[in-house]
Each structure stands twice: as structure tokens, then as C-alpha cells.
Amino acid sequence: MSVSIYYQTKEKPLTRVENAKEIPSEATIIWYDLNEPTEEESDELLNRFDFNPLEMDDTIHVNPRAKYKAYENYQNVVFHTISPRDYEIEVLNIFIINKILITYHHNVIREVNEVYKQIKNNYDKDLDCEDIVLYMLDHIVDNYFYYIENISDKVFTFEDEHGTDRTNKYMMDNIFDLRSDIIKLNRVIMPMKDVIDTLQNESQLVQDKRHKMYIQHITEHIDKEESMLQTARDITREIRDNFESYTSFRMNRVMQILTIVSMIFLPLTLIAGIYGMNFENMPELKWHYGYYATLVIMVLISLGCIWYFKRKDMF
């Protein structure tokens, strides 16, 4: 568990303190960063700031969907980051109450640390909580590029190596693995795109011109990422469809050959069946050349069937 407390004033850059009592009254930003807080600390947060109990229950016990919601005295925004281990969703829950910013997460979120360093190293006396939220959103969206470019490189490499290879029996397993990763990324990107649209068009978070320009910059990035994911998904679908079409063609070809073989042997089986019957009165069985004549007839029938099927381009 870790609770970090920061503040900033017009004269002093972002500073960390051990206790909220150390925060001066002239602070323009107060930032509480909670990483894996205990249930008691979460309850204290709920009681101190009068948050919606249902909202806090989602924050504490489940992974809420990416969203933005404005209440009477505070705003709540949920961002989704990507786990570098397995492309799964990690949740960053943010509350904004005037000059107070609360970030709540159950895992270490590297974007939070990146924004802290950015603010620490680039002091801006006019910084506000909305700026910090947009900085975090920008870092989150920019970090998506790493994962999307990684999966795109895998897809393009796979296409170069196996685009014309239709004999690799493990190819479909690889395709399904790639598509699984694409789906995981898409589960993060699409809800976040909706949140960004909401922030841009309907939120109290983006009001002045500076914020609107910044959110437009973020929107362009996530639109590009969506396009890259769509391209990767289309390529894997085309490779999969080509492989399935070729597999289906090969199966049909095998069935066609088996059918032709069956058709050739059908009259031969009929002849063998007739002469395999145990009737006593079959005069041709007494003929000295009967056996050889039967073999010749069977060969001629086979050759005739082969000629006919060849003429019809059946093989």
C-alpha cells in the first residue's frame, strides 16, 4: 500500500509531504495518489470528500469501465492503461474536487509516475488539476503506441513470412494468438476513445481553449491508433481467410480424387461381384480365355473412365 501526497503553490513547484497537515493554505493543487490503499483508507476517502458510495464501491472492488461523470461537487474519470505483461486492462480512477486531485489505482501505473516527473521538472505556476488529468491521458494514449506498434510489427512480419505459406499447420494457431492480442488492445482503445469524445464535447474538464487544443491533440493520436489496430485486424483476417480457402480447396480436391477412384472401381466391383456368385450354370467360366478376357474388359473400363474424367477436366 502506498499513499503519496503532493501540493503546489504559485511560488513553489510540486512538493511531496508525508501528512496532509503539512499542506499550506495557499496551495493551488493538492494531489493524493493512492496505490493499493487499504479498505480503511478508502472509507476515509469516501467520508472526507462525500463521494458517491456506489462509485467508490466500483472503484474499490471492481474494475470499472472507462468513463467520465460529473457530480454536483466533483468529477470522476476512469482511464484504462495496458498491462505490459499480457495486454490486460489496468484501471486508473481519478477524482477532481476543485483544486484537489485524487488518483486511485490497484497497480503501479507508470503514467502517473511519468506525469509526476514531468510536472516536477517543468514547473508551471498556472497548472491546475485539469492539466494534470490531461497530461495523464496524453501519456496513457501515447503509451498505447508501443503496444500497437509491437503487435503491428508482429502482424507485418508474420505476413512477410507466411503470407504465401499455406502448408504450415501451426499457422492458424499463430493467427489466433495475434488476433487475441488485437482484441485485448481493442477492448482498451475503443472505450477510451469514447471517453475522450465525451471529454472533448460534454465535460466540465475541458473548458478553456488551451484544454480544447490539448484534447484535440490526444484525439488525433487515438484515432491513428484505432486505424493501426484496424489495419492489423484486417491483415490477420485476410491471412486467415486465405488459409481457410486454400484448406477448403485442398479438401475438395482430395474428395474429388476419392470420388473419381470410387467411380473407376464401381464397375470393376460390379464385374467382380457377378463372377463371385456361386451359380453352377455360368458358361463363360468354362471358357479357357475367360479370366484373361475379364481382366482386359476391366482394364478397358478403367481406361475409359479415366479418359472420360480427364476429358471433363475432373482431374
From TrEMBL:
Keywords, ordered alphabetically: Cell membrane, Ion transport, Magnesium, Membrane, Transmembrane, Transmembrane helix, Transport
SUPFAM superfamilies reported for this sequence: CorA soluble domain-like (SSF143865), Magnesium transport protein CorA, transmembrane region (SSF144083)
CDD domains per UniProt: TmCorA-like_u2
GO cellular component: plasma membrane
GO molecular function term, any single one: magnesium ion transmembrane transporter activity
Broad class of the protein's primary localization: membrane
Coiled-coil intervals, chain numbering: none
Transmembrane segments: 257-277, 289-309
Catalytic activity: Mg(2+)(in) = Mg(2+)(out)
Membrane topology summary: Multi-pass membrane protein
Pfam short name (any one): CorA
Compartments, record wording: Cell membrane; Membrane
Family recorded in the similarity comment: Belongs to the CorA metal ion transporter (MIT) (TC 1.A.35) family.
Its job: Mediates influx of magnesium ions. Alternates between open and closed states. Activated by low cytoplasmic Mg(2+) levels. Inactive when cytoplasmic Mg(2+) levels are high.
Protein name: Magnesium transport protein CorA
Organism listed in the record: Staphylococcus carnosus (strain TM300)
Taxonomy of the source species: Bacteria, Bacillati, Bacillota, Bacilli, Bacillales
